[in-house]
Design a protein that fits this description.
Structural class: alpha+beta
Number of strands: 33
Oligomer: single chain
Strand content: 25-35%
Shape: globular
Strand order of the largest sheet: 9-23-24-25-28-31-30
Radius of gyration: 25 Å
């Protein structure tokens, strides 16, 4: 079995680490409170147009705020609006002081009339495991089947070559099957009989296990998910603990070895498959007795009375996503990355609600700390850098829930090759054919003799910058005056860069890492 390790890192500066701890479930205690109507300033008509701050409070706690120009209609959070805390959640029923079609003319604050729902913790692991599994199913029902059905069949990682080869294999495997159930039985059995369990040197990425036929539970489960999607069946990955509910104690989750399994939607319901433990379509009682779900689709879904001490990563609540560390919701993070057995997951969060960079529906005002939903757009602005709207969303770098797509290479109709690095950075590659690019452990790999160039966001505005490159090992690669790289010998190549603006200041720096292998 694989150990599931999670490290949360804020972007850009702070790093915090977490360990897995406790969990909860069941009855909800409810109390209702009405706050007094308070406004910071009376709304009056101003002669000149300027920006003002619109704020929403729960008592003295700022829930969210945003900037608006005079004359604009004041936007409200969706109604009812729910906000989680570590021990309860608030359901805001209305914002006192607001009237219909209210327009901006000054700074103004609204105070909430709300219901407080307290969490009541329970300790029975089987009860909790059932609640977590059902919450996982409810989440992927909502996210993959209802809200974004196009996501249900997308394979976000890997190369086009991997997806093509996988399609050829799976199509051949299930050629004789007449029902979807027969198809998943064939795929399950192929993984069980073909993939050798190896937890010492295996990559977490399914394209690697597809090539080597060796790997532990995470890439096995991810490979099954990709195979199901290839034949048109919605599927998702789940991670957590596989062990008897009589033994597993959630207060000590970090003492247990992590595990991963697949979920597939067949015959109008989600089914669990785990070939490493001979588990094929178990019933709910068996799942509750043996499978403690921590994440589904690398997301922790809310369920009644969830204990955030048991949450590592990103917590889904009422249509929004929040980063959690040490049982505390981190409202100040702008980004978050965590590893699940070396498979890197990256998100972007709305750390500055006064400047929501992208919102699909401007009437949805999201609270500070919540993830960008329905897309995210890169934003940069200073005296040397104009506003840049990157191709991130158009190309699908960010999923609708704010989760970044990573470790993938593909080519669009204009012949542009797009490379999404496993840490969510985006680059284009030119001067080389798509079939000469590989992924190894989610990292770009080329053969000795390859000649190509990376294009990053700063290349779009490079007339404003001097870009200085440094090659760490000149025995591995060379670079000409135009930035084209030639791979000289096998190894891990590292190229560092600094962006110098016209005044001599450094606007940014970074590193590009890729692998070189012997030519075939």
């Amino acid at each position: 079995m694989t150990t599931t390790e999670s490290t949360i890192a804020s972007t850009p500066d702070t790093t915090v680490s977490t360990t897995q701890t406790t969990l909860t479930t069941q009855p909800v205690t409810t109390t209702t409170t009405t706050a007094a109507v308070t406004t910071e300033t009376a709304l009056t008509t101003a002669a000149t147009s300027q920006e003002h701050t619109i704020s929403f409070y729960n008592g003295e706690v700022l829930v969210l705020s945003y900037s608006a120009v005079e004359g604009e209609e004041i936007l409200l959070p969706k109604n009812p609006f729910k906000l989680p805390t570590e021990t309860n959640y608030y359901e805001f029923l209305q914002w006192n002081g607001y009237v219909e079609n209210m327009v901006v003319s000054d700074d103004v604050s609204f105070y909430a009339e709300f219901t407080e729902h307290e969490f009541t913790l329970v300790s029975d692991t089987k009860t909790i495991s059932e609640a977590r599994h059902l919450a996982a199913v409810q989440y992927i029902n909502q996210y993959l089947l209802q809200d974004y059905p196009e996501e249900a069949l997308k394979i976000h990682h890997g190369t086009d070559a991997y997806k093509t080869a996988l399609n050829v294999l799976v199509t051949d495997l299930v050629a004789s099957a007449t029902t979807d159930l027969e198809k998943i039985q064939i795929i399950y059995q192929w993984v069980k009989d073909t993939i050798v369990y190896d937890n010492e040197c295996a990559s977490p990425y399914p394209e690697d296990i597809f090539e080597t036929l060796r790997g532990d539970c995470l890439p096995q489960a991810l490979l099954m998910v990709d195979m199901f999607k290839t034949i048109g069946l919605p599927a998702s990955i789940a991670t957590g603990i596989r062990g008897s509910a009589d033994i597993v104690v959630e207060e000590n989750l970090d003492q247990y070895i992590g595990h991963a399994w697949a979920l597939v939607y067949v015959d109008d319901k989600w089914e669990l498959l785990d070939p490493l433990f001979d588990t094929f379509l178990p019933d709910l009682d068996y799942i509750s007795s043996w499978y403690y779900t921590e994440m589904v689709d690398f997301t922790v879904p809310y369920y009644p009375n969830i204990n955030l001490d048991a949450v590592v990563g990103v917590y889904y609540f009422d249509g929004l996503y929040y980063p959690v560390d040490d049982g505390v919701i981190q409202y100040e993070l702008s980004g978050l990355s965590f590893d699940v057995d070396h498979y890197q997951i990256t998100w972007r969060f709305n750390s500055n609600p006064n400047n929501p960079y992208f919102q699909e529906d401007p009437m949805k005002i999201t609270p500070q700390g919540a993830a960008y939903t329905d897309g995210w757009v890169f934003f940069a602005y200073d005296q040397y850098t104009p506003y840049i709207s990157s191709p991130s969303r158009v190309l699908g770098q960010y999923r609708p829930n704010g989760q970044a797509v990573s470790a993938t290479i593909y080519q669009t109709e204009d012949n542009t090759i797009h490379y999404f690095v496993k840490n969510s950075e985006y680059m284009q590659i030119e001067g080389i054919e798509l079939e000469d690019l590989y992924l190894n452990w989610g990292t770009l790999e080329v053969e000795v003799g390859a000649h190509f160039k990376f294009l990053s966001w700063f290349d779009m505005i490079d007339h404003l910058y001097t870009v200085n490159y440094t090659i760490e090992d000149e025995n591995l690669i060379s670079m000409d005056e135009f930035g084209y790289i030639t791979a000289l010998s096998p190894g891990e190549a590292i190229v560092r860069y600094k962006l110098e603006n016209p005044s001599g200041g450094i606007n940014g720096e970074g590193v590009i890492i890729f692998l070189i292998k012997e030519s075939s």
